[in-house]
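Board notes (copied after class):
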Amino acid sequence: MALREDLIGELGAINLYQTHIDEIDDEEVKKVLSHIRDDEKEHVAELVKAIRKIDPSQDEKFQKENL
């Protein structure tokens, strides 16, 4: 399912932005990157919601784990 590939990309982006945040000393740049990272986190939530909607089996797994 292509949405899972999209999810992988978003998670990779979050990790990459976090790495940059951890390595940069400039607070203004950190703030910008943190905002972008948090947008990516929102994308993850939206993609998971979409996956749950179109894949009942996956949704069942999330429900089983109270997610």
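Comment from the instructor: The two ends are 21 Å apart (CA to CA). The chain has a mean pLDDT of 97.
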